[in-house]
Amino acid sequence: MENQLTQKAKSFFDLHHSDSMLILPNIWEPVGALLLQEIGYKAVATASAAMAFTNGVLDGEKITLDELIPQIAKIAKSVEIPVSVDFESGFAENNEQLAKNIEALIDIGVVGINIEDSDKKNHSLISAEKQISKIKTIKEVAQKREIPFFINARTDIYIYKKEKSPESKLKESIERGLAYKEAGADCFYPIVMKNLEDIQATVESLKMPVNILTLPGIPDLQTLEDIGVARVSLGPSLLKYAVKAMKSLAEQLQNKKGLEEITQNPITSDYLEALLMKVQ
Questions:
Q1: CATH code assigned to 4-236
Q2: d(Cα 253, Cα 250) in Å, to the nearest integer?
Q3: CA 23, 221, 238, 189 torsion: positive or negative?
Q4: What is the pLDDT of residues 102-144, one digit of tens each?
Q5: Which whole-number Å values give the CA distances from 69 to 108, 132, 146, in the listed order?
Q6: What are the boundaries of each domain within the chain?
Q7: Which of 5, 6, 191, 248 has the fewest CB within 10 Å, making it most exposed?
Q8: Beta pairing partners, 115
Q9: What angle do CA 83, 35, 16 make, to 5 degrees?
Q10: Mean pLDDT over residues 260-273, rounded?
């Protein structure tokens, strides 16, 4: 009989191969995960930037793994649906350390990750060969643990090769996508790609799930689904939206306004306690 984690991992895989595009409003703590589960989301994913910002540090593996793992564990423990983690570049100097880190994520109930092909220290793109090696390492750990651990292979070409022509960036992105797929990646994430034709060419060329980030200028969600995009992530946008609401209310209160925003808020303490009671 399959264990619960294996079932969650298979469910997460299936969500990327259904008729409906998977939309993930990335969260950073248990209440957000419970809220999404409560309103019907079938999976949750973290955002590295949101996790970092809410700990008072910048994104880019500035939060330590010792700080991150316990927080992810709380999220994974809080919900019954699959949890995927934005794991940046893997928090590792080598593949041996990466393997240990993946073991740690599986141990706390995580079923998938985003893994980037960039060097956080040097702020540069790493070679495709090095990223392929990392993907294979993750797959080896997953096979050893008999968990179909989901790899969302992110490429940062559109971040670090801005000076290149659109045609050059698309070509290299697709080449990396195909190589990552061959290495064992389950999904390809060309972050900050937003041109409709580029996205469509990527989906058609790779014939695997493709993940798009919500950014100004991307096609609307229905169009993305129509051209075959399997997954849309919000990154830190949900946190930004929450901070926008906090800022707006705080500014109103400075002018002796906004009381009704507090007293008429449908998200009450009882509502939050009811969410949390499910994991007590």
A1: 3.20.20.60
A2: 5
A3: positive
A4: 999 999 999 999 999 999 888 999 999 999 999 999 999 999 9
A5: 8, 25, 21
A6: 4-236
A7: 248
A8: 153
A9: 40
A10: 96
Handedness of CA 269, 44, 192, 123 (dihedral sign): positive
What's the gap between Cα 277 and its chain centre? 26
User: Phi-psi bin for 190: left (phi > 0), alpha (psi -120 to 50), beta?
Assistant: beta
The residue assigned the tokens 């469910």 is: 11
